[in-house]
Amino acid sequence: MAAIERLLSGEVWAFLMVFFRVGAMMLLVPALGEQVIPQRIKLSLALVLSYLILPLAHGLPRPPDSPIAASYFILGELGTGLMIGMALRMVLAAFNVAGSIIAIQSGLAFIQTIDPTQGAQGSLMANFLSLIGLIAIFAADLHVMPIAAIRDSYVLFPPGRWPEIQDMTQTIIDTVASSFRLGVQISAPFIVFGIIFNAALGVLARLIPQMQVTFITLPAQILVAFALLSLTLGTAVTLYLDYFTKRLQTFLL
Questions:
Q1: Domain tally, the chain
Q2: What is the DSSP letter of 91?
Q3: pTM
Q4: pLDDT digits (tens, 9 = 90+) for 4-28
Q5: Which of 60, 94, 103, 203 could form a Cys-Cys staple with 109, CB 3.0–4.6 A?
Q6: Phi/psi zone of residue 74: left (φ > 0), alpha (ψ -120 to 50 degrees), beta?
């Protein structure tokens, strides 16, 4: 009997193989892998999902003959889970890009706060839109799509094999590019507003050099930016949810 089989039964080995991929993906998948979710809840959810997905995970390798071969399979599953989770995580970057651009155009870029979903520092507007996007995902019941992506990953990326680095890298690059493009599209009204407002400030500064134009007009800039945000937020959330759905469908059968 193989050395690994003497330590683990076939069922335990299969469960561990599923858990390694599911646990790695749970660290990064949208809506479920946020920093605000306690680690114990993530671990419990990963164990439950591994148990539910185990009957659907066909093609799991048998326990290998040596620890080296076992390490090869384990690292392959961890790498596959992390790369898929990273590709899915990049979908959430659209609102971060839009929020950063809006913060610059509204004069609020100097206000930095901690993003509770990521545990990193960012602009106030970017953190606000990130929370809005996360709430919208749960409100629209789209948080089940990452779970479906975990299930279908065993068909798209057969277990026991290392992922195709070139294909996964291209997928991540495409996701980042499309997220950045959507972020610019969402913030387009604020870019136009910023160009017009700054051009008007330049003319005013030339006409009245003695006046501190920037400090005097900053409240008006912030007020107009918030008014514009209230008018465009609904459309922005709709575009964001449509984009979230389309990008995650590429990981579904």
A1: 1
A2: G
A3: 0.81
A4: 555 566 778 888 888 998 988 888 8
A5: 103
A6: alpha
